[in-house]
Design brief:
- The longest helix has 19 residues.
- The chain has 746 residues and is of the alpha/beta class.
- Strands 5-4-19-18-17-6 form a 6-stranded mixed sheet. Strands 24-28-25-27-26-29 form a 6-stranded mixed barrel.
- Helix 2 crosses helix 17, helix 5 runs parallel beside helix 6 and helix 7 packs across helix 11.
- It contains 24 helices and 29 strands.
- Strand 2 and strand 3 form a beta hairpin.
Length: 746
């Protein structure tokens, strides 16, 4: 009898057959299975499922006054729905060109390599003449655009800038973690075999490593004698790092060899740090006024870095803010100043703990996925600029030294993502979302994105289809055998795209005469070609799972920038200077006031030290939730159990709550000039005053769908976050730069 496994973005589970039906349990090889994934199968017959193809009544009847999100839907047959889609693709491409089609699909729909919604629709649309695309991600968009200027394009990826965990265990004396929430490590863009981040960190702490967690919330500090906490205001991490640099320059504690041989532009950065450039020395006293920490706390923090091997780890959350490039740039500069570049377990890291895969010492199971083909359309936008694209046809967008022309988008085709979760300032997005002539989505459930579409094609969930689940930053490959038949009339994305491709006359090129089983065997053969030790496909399919190596006993570690640090002339970086660019002539040439050419303190418009804080005195942080993945599984399991007053729970400092008459369990309205949402109040003794934490992912629910300024009822923070982005350089999300006020709501 074959084993049965189910791999997801938040873990790999065994499928046990019970009298009540299939049930998930943690995979025995996973030391810390994610509990919220155990509820996944509750979606199999949930009332939120989309049962059959649906078309918005106003679109069907040609009623231009009807409002997306406030209309009813009409059921239609599959052949009718897919013919509608094909006809719209043909009509828009014929009348306006393929650049007027925007396919901004996101990649979190499934850990499976074949039933990857984004790959399926892009493959189909490329065969139909192409589309305007999106680049980067909401999670790491600022860093992906910025880091190539400092290190070269090969350092743009989410896993490109971190030492291996085994090196941290063996060598790191002090790890400083900015914005590291270990619950984020439950998930990963690919599949997750074993959750080991907390295991690795615990080994390092037990060996004697010191951990300093820099965060507004002391609850982010692990319970360990060697772990401590430093509270600073959100968005002020760059100021703290600049104060460290000032102390080391003042005391002559600079590694001159690394600065001279590995970097360029240090003299200009140093002039700024010392105040020669602006008459403001970046001293601990200066940083204290910005960060809210005491000068003595900052001096103690600086002293902690005077160890042989120090590592500055910055979570992805830091670059999802106004001027989000700056803390990353300053951490790089500080690592070079201290001689930590290329040192095992030292230097800098971006994303340890942000997802499970960063820093894992693995042989990467990387092989080609489903070939998406070539997109004949060259137009693109950074993904966080969707509302700009829709609202400003024919306009321009400054991005990374380019001026992008914004096409006149008439058709939006979305699959495998939920912009009404990911995007900021949802009232602005809702307004811009009305402009395209047609919006098509593949959705298994009635998300707000589905409710704001014209044609909704019901797609299967991952446990309703066979697939191969694997991540290039993991060592476990899983055969996902379907546990359930498809819900109602739902079909998988490949079936849907094949039907549309048939109407478009490109079905043979799209499917290549292969059925799903043929495709799975074909893709697996690609992995086996690179990893001959993998079992044959039949054995793998029956066994259900295979792991290449044991993570803790046979790590394959890498030292970030080791060859370059050892011999920079022989191994130059792919930057204009061949070195780490602490001052970038390229960025200077862009003349972006919101992204200076070296690391700098750039005060956000929305932060606790700014003028706007007089009106909106609470800084809202919207991290990833601990009880679901993004908005997935919000309707079931732990996410539902953790609601407060039937809404998403927001964490308030007790002092702030008392000032506003807010008690535990109250319904509270968070608001600013952009909008308002209702949340359930929880009170905290560990959160610094002036900060509120509201995780993302509650299903966007406007009280009045016809009102683009409506109160949001479920607790979605993007009802109030700003759609101004990190900078013109990256156009990345700045969700964590957001001020609000709170009042008790009757």
């Amino acid at each position: 009898m074959s084993d049965h496994f189910f791999a997801t973005h938040f873990g790999t589970y065994r499928v046990d057959q019970t009298p009540e039906g299939p049930r998930l349990s943690g995979w025995q090889a996973d030391p810390q299975p994610s509990g919220f994934g155990l509820s996944y199968l509750e979606l199999a017959r949930h009332r939120c499922r989309v049962a059959q193809p649906m078309v918005r009544r106003g679109w069907l009847e040609g009623n231009a006054r009807s409002i997306r999100g406030a209309d009813t839907f009409v059921p239609v047959a599959w052949d009718t729905a897919t013919q509608f889609v094909a006809d719209e693709i043909d009509r828009i491409a014929g009348n306006y060109g393929n650049r007027s089609i925007f396919a901004g699909s996101y990649g979190w729909a499934s850990a499976g390599r074949f039933h990857h919604a984004q790959s399926q629709i892009k493959r189909m649309l490329n065969l139909a003449g192409g589309f305007t695309a999106s680049r980067h991600s909401y999670s790491y968009g600022t860093a992906s655009a910025f880091l190539p200027h400092v290190f070269g394009p090969e350092y743009a990826g989410t896993n490109a800038c971190a030492p291996s965990w085994d090196q941290i265990v063996d060598h790191t004396d002090c790890l400083v973690a900015f914005g590291m929430r270990l619950t984020n490590a439950q998930c990963d863009p690919g599949g997750v075999g074993r959750h080991t981040v907390e295991q690795w960190l615990g080994r390092a702490l037990d060996r004697g490593m010191r951990l300093i967690v820099v965060s507004p919330d002391a609850a982010d500090r692990p319970e360990h004698p060697n772990a401590e906490h430093l509270a600073i205001r959100p968005n002020t991490d760059t100021a703290l790092l600049l104060a460290c640099a000032h102390a080391f320059i003042r005391n002559g504690e600079i590694d001159q060899r690394q600065i001279r041989q590995l970097t360029t532009g240090f003299d200009r950065l140093a002039a700024y740090v010392k105040g020669d450039a602006d008459d403001v020395a970046k001293t601990p006293e200066w940083a204290a006024r910005i960060t809210g920490a005491r000068p003595s706390q900052i001096e103690r923090f600086i002293a902690a870095l005077r160890v042989p091997t120090s590592l500055l780890n910055l979570g992805w959350s830091l670059q999802r803010a106004s001027a989000g490039e700056q803390p990353y740039w300053m951490a790089i500069a500080l690592a070079a100043m201290r001689g930590q570049i290329g040192r095992p377990g030292g230097g800098f890291a971006f994303g340890l703990g942000s997802v499970n895969s960063v820093g894992q010492p693995v042989r990467r199971l990387k092989a080609p996925g489903l070939d998406q083909g070539h997109n004949p359309v060259s137009d693109f936008i950074p993904v966080a600029a969707i509302a700009d694209l829709l609202a400003n046809p024919g306009g321009t967008l400054e991005y990374n030294g380019q001026t992008l022309s914004l096409p006149d988008i008439r058709l939006v085709y979305w699959a495998g993502g939920n912009p009404f979760h990911h995007h900021q300032d949802l009232n602005r997005l809702r307004h811009a979302w009305q402009r395209p002539e047609t919006i098509i989505v593949h959705e298994p459930v009635w998300t707000a994105t589905a409710q704001h579409a014209d044609i909704v094609l019901p797609s299967t969930l991952p446990f309703e289809r066979n697939d191969i689940a694997v991540s290039s930053h993991n060592r476990t490959i899983v055969f996902n055998r379907a546990t359930h038949a498809p819900y109602a009339d739902a079909r998988d994305d490949h079936q849907i795209c094949t039907m549309i491709a048939d109407h478009l006359g490109v079905a043979d090129k799209f499917a290549e005469q292969r059925n799903t089983e043929d495709w799975l065997a074909y893709l697996y053969a690609g992995y086996r070609e690179k990893f001959p030790e993998l079992p044959d496909y039949r054995t793998f399919r029956q066994k259900g799972i295979h792991t290449l190596d044991d993570e803790l006993e046979a790590p394959r570690s890498t030292t970030l920038l080791a060859e370059f640090a050892e011999a920079p002339e022989a191994h130059p970086l792919s930057t204009p200077s061949g070195r780490i660019e602490l001052f970038s002539e390229t960025i200077a040439s862009f003349a972006y006031g919101d992204c200076p050419p070296h690391a700098s303190w750039v005060a956000p418009k929305e932060w606790l030290g700014g003028e706007l804080a007089q009106t909106y005195p609470l800084h809202l942080l919207s991290p990833q939730p601990a009880n679901r993945l993004h908005s997935q599984l919000d309707a079931v399991g732990a996410s539902q159990r953790d609601k407060v007053a039937a809404r998403e729970a927001a964490v308030f400092c007790t002092e702030d709550a008392i000032m506003r008459g807010i008690r535990e369990g109250d319904t509270v309205k968070l608001f600013n000039a952009r909008g308002a949402c209702l949340v359930g109040a929880t009170l905290s003794e560990t959160l610094m005053p002036g900060v509120v934490i509201l995780p993302t992912g509650a299903w966007y629910t406007p009280e009045d769908p016809t009102d683009f300024a409506s109160l949001e009822l479920a607790g979605n923070p993007n009802a109030v976050t700003q759609d101004r982005r990190a900078s013109r350089l990256s156009q990345g999300s700045a969700a964590h730069s957001c001020l609000v006020e709170a009042v008790r709501h009757e």
